[in-house]
Design a protein that fits this description.
alpha+beta; Pseudouridine synthase; ten-stranded mixed β-sheet; two-stranded antiparallel ribbon; 4 helices
Length: 230
């Protein structure tokens, strides 16, 4: 990713925080078999400071949208406390195969990480798992698909993907939890918005939205997404 490309993905910046529009398909940090990752490209986001910003949380490799970065240690600590207290609101959009059973609701289904020889691991609903809560709302329906908004109230790995499958409407492009592991195309999950409380007495609250990427925008437009939305 070039300097111009990473700079163009800055959605918000102040003295404490940067919110970045992460592209789908790019891991946020290094890992086994992950030589290319977002942290390699954060240098230009220092904007004259001694160090570039650092990750305040994570997004899956295949998820696009709002990613929060802290610009210094104090900001990262404050953001960490807000995440631990579930005070940072996150909104996701997805394209689902099928639809939830109503127009809105809440999933309260514990999630357990399970190792599987054929795929490595997956997350599934299991009473022995960790508590997981997700609110959801249907924004559009058509031709066997649904445009669903998700608001996770806990931060479990693959929470939205597992809860969507639990509701009977797996995310399109989800090779692990989806209806068809061989389904072609990218994962249709986007971190649409974040809301951050003030990080200090003189700081304003932060609210940021990320436009859906082209592969998701086209699908949601068929379900009623207004093309004039940012």
């Amino acid at each position: 990713m070039s300097e111009a490309e990473i700079l163009a993905r800055v959605l918000y910046r102040d003295q404490d925080v940067i919110v970045l529009d992460k592209p789908a398909g790019l891991a946020v940090h290094a890992g086994p078999g992950t030589p290319d990752h977002l942290e390699l490209y954060l240098g230009p986001l220092a904007f004259g400071w001694a160090r570039p910003p650092r990750l305040a949380h994570r997004l899956d490799r295949d998820t696009s949208g709002c990613l929060i970065l802290g610009r210094h240690d104090k900001a990262l600590k404050r953001l960490g406390r807000l995440f631990e207290a579930h005070r940072i609101d996150k909104v996701y959009w997805s394209l689902c195969r099928g639809a939830p059973p109503a127009e809105s609701g809440r999933v309260e289904a514990p999630l357990l990480k399970q190792s599987l020889p054929e795929i490595g691991w997956r997350v599934r609903v299991d009473p022995a798992g960790r508590s997981a809560i997700t609110d959801w709302r249907v924004l559009g329906r058509g031709d066997g698909f649904a445009w669903v908004e998700w608001r996770p109230r806990t931060g479990r790995t693959h929470q939205i993907r597992a809860h969507a499958a639990h509701l009977g409407c797996p995310l399109v492009g989800d090779a692990v939890h989806g209806a068809d592991p061989a389904e072609p195309g990218p994962l249709q999950l986007h971190a649409r918005a974040v809301s951050i409380p003030p990080l200090g007495p003189s700081r304003p609250p932060i609210a940021v939205e990320a436009p859906p990427p082209p592969h998701l925008h086209a699908a949601l437009a068929a379900l009623g997404l207004n093309s004039s939305l940012p």
